[in-house]
């Protein structure tokens, strides 16, 4: 992986070295999400170590009441390592931002290619289902419900294999009683029991909800439209009625094995829904699939993203350079000015210690207190410095790093 940073750290993962912002060179901005922005970065003092770096402004996140989601996502990602997950490699923070450095996937997300009217094949659907099913089985072993499976959150590598990302609304559930009641997700992909649990006190949902979302996602991949028309403004009770009484349209030229598969994935009753890789592979649609081939990427999708053109919207880079008020490439000098300004304010306040705080200063003090709380609960992570034992148990997963884009 190349040379490590030189800063000392007393983080909880036993890392001797802490990687920081100054260890990376920003190459270009490639996207933004609900909780942050993403850019391509190159690790300094290395030849080919290139990653995706997601960064989130701490103060804005606190004001928007999403800081707990960010810290929860970070905590979840430190526990995961799978060939079809966008794996976390480093986390660090500074006065402004929280940073999460992960696998770089330059194939774009499924949503981008669906909008570009890519004609995905049945073989593509077969590979995608196997890869995502293996992820959902893995997440279940970690007691995690993703709660936002959709094309936007599925990235492709250069060979066309899928990688699940965005765990910002994922939930860790009890091993003995994996019951959830809080509504979460993107409505057109949300399972009926998730809607139902939000208003029916006796209802709940669990891992099966992700399998419904998987069915909706693959249906959209093949047909470039969703199986049910769930408008974002539709009420939860109305959504349940629509999903209970609705039927899905399946092309006549689809093999019966594929039609049966969608009936199994889009079962209204979660107890009757397909919800494991083993049950998936028993379906006739997968009769030629060997389970051992899935994790080592022996299944080959027909669609491969372009290697010569961008697989994302280039306006993200323009926004970062022109529109963004605090651009990332100006961070070093901006933080230096801020530190100098704080020193001046501190010296001035010491000379005038008898003057009471203004309203604005009281608010700033509350913000500073919140930022200190974020800093306290932030988990610094460095996958390179994990113990040898952990690295050995993840040997198959470690190999996946070589298959993603560089």
TrEMBL record:
Comp. bias regions, Basic and acidic residues: 396-406
Leader sequence residues: none
UniProt source species: Clavelina lepadiformis (Light-bulb sea squirt)
Residue ranges of domain Protein kinase in the record: 24-286
Protein name per the record: Protein kinase domain-containing protein
Record-linked Gene3D superfamilies: Phosphorylase Kinase, domain 1, Transferase(Phosphotransferase) domain 1
Family that this chain belongs to: Belongs to the protein kinase superfamily.
Ranges in coiled-coil conformation: none
Short name of one Pfam family: Pkinase
Record region (Disordered): 385-406
């Amino acid at each position: 992986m190349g040379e490590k940073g030189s800063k000392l750290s007393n983080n909880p993962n036993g890392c001797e070295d802490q990687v920081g912002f100054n260890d990376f060179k920003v190459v270009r901005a490639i996207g933004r999400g609900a909780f942050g922005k993403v850019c391509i970065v190159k690790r300094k003092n290395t030849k080919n170590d290139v990653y995706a770096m997601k960064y989130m402004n701490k103060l804005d996140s606190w004001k928007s009441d999403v800081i707990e989601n960010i810290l929860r996502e970070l905590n979840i990602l430190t526990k995961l390592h799978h060939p079809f997950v966008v794996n976390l490699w480093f986390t660090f923070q500074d006065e402004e931002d929280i940073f999460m450095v992960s696998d770089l996937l330059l194939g774009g997300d499924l949503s981008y290619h669906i909008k570009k009217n890519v004609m995905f094949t049945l073989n593509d659907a077969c590979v995608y289902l196997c890869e995502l099913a293996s992820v959902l089985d893995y997440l279940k072993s970690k007691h995690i419900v993703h709660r936002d499976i959709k094309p936007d959150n599925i990235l492709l590598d250069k060979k066309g294999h899928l990688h699940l990302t965005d765990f910002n609304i994922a939930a860790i559930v009890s091993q003995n009683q994996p019951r959830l009641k809080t509504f979460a997700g993107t409505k057109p992909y949300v399972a009926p029991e998730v809607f139902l649990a939000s208003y029916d006190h006796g209802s709940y949902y669990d891992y099966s909800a992700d399998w419904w979302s998987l069915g909706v996602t693959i249906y959209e991949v093949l047909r470039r439209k969703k199986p049910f028309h769930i408008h974002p403004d539709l009420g939860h009770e109305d959504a349940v009625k629509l999903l209970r009484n609705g039927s899905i349209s399946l092309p006549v030229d689809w093999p019966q094995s594929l039609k049966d598969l969608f009936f199994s994935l889009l079962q209204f009753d979660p107890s009757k829904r397909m919800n494991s890789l083993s049950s998936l592979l028993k379906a006739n649609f997968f009769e030629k699939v060997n389970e051992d081939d899935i994790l080592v990427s022996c299944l080959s999708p027909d669609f491969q993203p372009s290697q010569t053109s961008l697989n994302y919207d280039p306006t993200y880079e323009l926004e970062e350079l022109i529109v963004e008020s605090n651009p990332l490439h100006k961070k070093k000098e901006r933080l230096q000015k801020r530190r100098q300004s704080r020193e001046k304010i501190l010296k001035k306040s010491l000379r005038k210690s008898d003057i009471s705080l203004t309203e604005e200063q009281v608010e700033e003090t509350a913000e500073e207190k919140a930022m200190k709380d974020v800093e306290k609960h932030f988990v610094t992570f460095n996958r390179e410095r994990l113990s040898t034992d952990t690295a050995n148990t993840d040997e198959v997963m470690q190999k996946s790093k070589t298959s993603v884009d560089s």
